[in-house]
Amino acid sequence: MPEKTTQAVPARIPTGIEGVDDILGGGLTPHRMYLIEGAPGAGKTTLALQFLLKGAEVGEPGLYVTLSETKEELVAVAESHGWDTKRFTIIELLSDEGLDPRYEQTVLHPAEVELGETVRDVIAQVDEVKPARLVFDSLSELRMLSQNPLRYRRQILALKRYFATRACTVMLLDDNTSEPGDLQLHSIAHGVLCLDNLVHDYGGERRRLRIAKMRGIKFREGFHDMTLNTGGIEVYPRLIASEHHADFSAKPLSTGTAGLDALLGGGLVPGTNTLIVGPSGVGKTTTVTSCLLAALERGEPCVYYLFDETRTTLLRRSTSLGIDLRPHLDSGLLNLRQVDPAEISPGEFTSSVRQSVEQGNARYVAIDSLNAYLQAMPGERYLLLQMHELLTYLNQRGVITMLVLGQHGIIGEIQSDVDISYLSDVVLLFRYFERQGEVLTALTAVKSRASGHERSIRQFQLGAGGLNVGEALRDFEGILSGLPSYKGGTAMLVPDTSHAGSSGN
Length: 505
What we know:
The chain is α/β, with parallel strands linked by helices. Helix content is 29%, strand content 25%. It contains 14 helices and 21 strands. The protein has helices at 18-23, 44-57, 71-80, 115-129, 139-146, 149-164, 184-188, 258-264, 284-297, 311-320, 326-331, 346-358, 370-375, 383-396; strands at residues 33-38, 62-66, 89-92, 133-137, 169-174, 191-198, 206-214, 223-229, 232-236, 273-279, 302-306, 334-338, 364-368, 400-408, 415-416, 426-435, 438-448, 457-463, 466-472, 476-477, 485-486. Helix 5 crosses helix 6 and helix 12 (346-358) packs parallel to helix 14 (383-396). The longest helix is centred in the N-terminal third of the chain and has 16 residues, at 149-164. The radius of gyration is 30 Å and the shape is elongated.
């Protein structure tokens, strides 16, 4: 009796979409049949075109068999992305030309052609082109020709057996027109990729991808945000912080302000995140820019995500306070990104942060503000959980993260839209107080997991030279409540009139 030959496990093949390959741990298993399903407009055709173009790039011939769109329509879609469809073969089965000389009709429609003849035409084209990658678009026409589920399933199984003998990787596109809950194709396909698009009350559509099934491959489960723009699909794999660890020094680094360093117990510690909380105009944003300037002057790359104000406003106001960021922008050491929350998904934002850290080597990440990030995407769920995962990731990479959270109110009872203090390693709290007809600012560190911080409340002042943190306000009571009372003669910081009218967030 002859011995059985052990067949080597085939290597993975790239899909043409880097994010999908990352989710799958390297790509697809070749010579298998995959189902790509999603509603019209979800991105199935674009994904299939990228799959064929990637094959052409690595020398694998491709074939696109279409029953639902004309060749002209497919070419137009590809050209809108700047792609050349001459790199693979497009076969329009149900066209007015026909692929079989037996057909004499001038126009053929799926309902007028026998299923068996259509399948034979597919097989004939595969035998002629001998593709390594094949796209079949779409199964809805094949389903209609089959007339009943049993015949439909048998034809799909027959195609699967045929393709298995042709060393061909197949993508079957389906537009979800079958009965709800019909999963018979899922059981036949080697893998299933589900594309989804969501429409919120405001902003652009949110697209996402999920691997519903993949035999023999350990993949990252759940939904992954994606975008469909000129140039194709980009998928942002869901972040799992436990997969990202790095060695780093936990030595505190100076904020550039001696009083703030003393309040924090030595400075900001790598691998921690600091939440800066306070009412509008109290100096939160300026504190962040001052800390970033100190890091930039040490030669450390920084990235600043602006959700609330424009890049121009931030630079102008910071310069007026003696915090000039422009030279570091010009040198590339500082990456200042203005974000439109209504047009970005949480996954895309997380991916941008990862890129800044892993490719840009950013050691400081600032997010200003959490109010915009958490509230301007009301249609998204689990934003706090995603923020938790992002902060854990940044901590494990040894990054110093600074988060700004604005509060409602000026004096008296002050509230926050969200409570994220439990996710923060350090919490800096700003408050206004009144003294002799002047509105002054107090600052305290109410929490620090990283070091032994001061429990005192200090005066905080913005001036032409940047930040100034004074001595502890030991003769005041009720500052944190917003209704302070003066009990003594604590020396106040001398007002700086050179920046009259300017303020910081």
